[in-house]
Amino acid sequence: MTAKKSFSTMSAGQIALSILKYGFLLGLTVVALVPFVWMISSSLKTSIDVFSVPMKWIPTEFHWDNYLKIWERVPLLVYFKNTAVVAIIVTFMQILTSSFAAYAFAKMQFRGRDLLFMCYIGTIAVPWQVYMVPQFIMMRSIGLYDTIWALVVLQSFTAFGVFLMRQFYLGIPNDLSEAARIDGLSEYGIWARIILPLAKPAIATLCIFTFVNTWNDYMGPMIYLTTDLNKTIQVGLRRFIQAYSADYNLIMAASLCSLIPVAVVFLFLQRYFIEGIATTGMKG
Amino acid sequence: MTASHAESRRKMSALEKRNTLIAYSFLAPNFIGFVVFTLIPVIFSFALAFMDWGGGSNITFVGLDNFRYIFKDFSFTKSNLGIALKNTVFYTLMTVPLTLLCSLGFAMILNKAVKGANFFRAVLFFPYVASLVAICVCWNFLLMKNGPVNQMLNAIGFHMTKSWTSSRDLAIWAIIIVSVWRNAGYYMVMYLAGLQGVPGELYEAATIDGANAWQRFANVTLPMLTPTTFFNSIMMVISCFKIYDVVAIMTQGGPGRATKMLVTYIFELSFGGENIATSAQYGVASAVSMVLLAIVLLVTFVQFRGEKKWVNYM
After folding, report:
1. Do A259 and B131 touch (CB under 8 A)?
2. I need a surface site. Which of A49, A189, B87, B157 has the fewest CB within 10 A?
3. C-alpha distance from residue B287 to each of B47, B53, B70 (Å)
4. Which residues in chain A have their CB less than 8 angstroms from residue B110's CB?
5. CATH of domain B69-310
6. Of the candidates A29, A103, A158, which has its C-beta nearest B26's C-beta?
7. Could you tell me the domains of chain A?
8. Domain ranges within chain B, ordered by starting residue
């Protein structure tokens, strides 16, 4: 309505209001982004200049070599590789097992369905911290302690993924699967050829959710990984920070690098992501 | 007639059986993993709360001893559990309303036809996905003694002489600020979805009745958004009670015990704090997590009980 009004037909009050609105939005944007801008600026300074008084947003000299130094100090590349392996496998497994299990919950009738589903929902409500200790003891006893595979098995089968996919499947009309059933398609066929292609938005949402959560996971790797070369980026970065706590510039450069993969995934898929959250209303 | 009826019934049940088997085959890959890695640990954690176990081969049933231990000399200023509880509750009470306010405000502005709404939405959402350690350490620096925030505050007449994270009074606020900053965009998206569901006719009717912008907001928008607010506040309260990672990275529960949270305490008991090496007390840790679980369930229950009083469903 207001968007279609041309500027000339707006009253002075409306103009003032929209200036105020954009001014406020711009202010918010600054607040949201200022830490990132500061990160970039500090990563290009010498460590002494980072906290200079008064502070400078633009470094007097650009130290691009900071970005080379960080790779020599700690095995950052190994951390990246470990995290990528975990994030990619977990994301793949989640999508596969969740979309499969959700089909039974949403599109099939069988005994005990609702009870099983209640079990799933029930564990979503239990904070992970409540059962992390027994989980840890179990993983240690099957020899997965201090390997990234502990993180992979822990995060591959979540109730959350099943819930998210089920909610989306429920919105797909049953007539479609009924018609296919009459045409002689097996349940697996219906899942693969009818439901899955229609569920692309949900898959995209689960994909980004899982990837981002796994990439940013701090507590899991912190409990499970002790050997330096097994660490993922979040705990690796933490180690870097503790070891070189005075090299503010290098810390910021390494932090910025750790942001890049999620930022890229987010930029490309943010539309799906944001819409997916709004429709499923869930959080990982 | 009756024979064929019985036969068709038998066929039905055979079909049903087959159907059930197929359904289980769909569930199996996820379900097996779910049972082994989630359900069993959940059940085990209940048992562990009544055991004494340091991780070795000695495991003994001790009844309520673990609970007696954590509630011993309970006080909000001295005992570990009391302090952790007090900090967690304070953090939750501050973070939830602040985040709700910010996210609702953002959503209200973005919901009006603004050019570049998608851009602003993405920008405000980005902190939520950004790498946790990176943003926490960045905020740590921003809030340092000579950091930009203190410089700004000093410029407008405050006397900030300490890093936020090493000040007893401000450390918890550092955690709150980062949490609000990080999550507001996420809940904003929820509110935006909620706002889409408010019928335009309601606003038109209110305008005809002579309601001004503020009255429309207070009498149409807010009541219509109560389901979203309800959902958001439940999710937020639960996640606030589980706060750990931001604390672990920014303050490690310090200075002293100023930002020690329930989960920080559980963590220390089971894995030793980040810098403290103590022997594991898995049973006690489980007892504390039962307290956490009880609180989360209780708060959720109370919120659901109150639901009818203030939430309007169409």
Report:
1. yes
2. B157
3. 10, 12, 8
4. 25
5. 1.10.3720.10
6. A103
7. 7-64 (no CATH), 68-280 (1.10.3720.10)
8. 2-48, 69-310
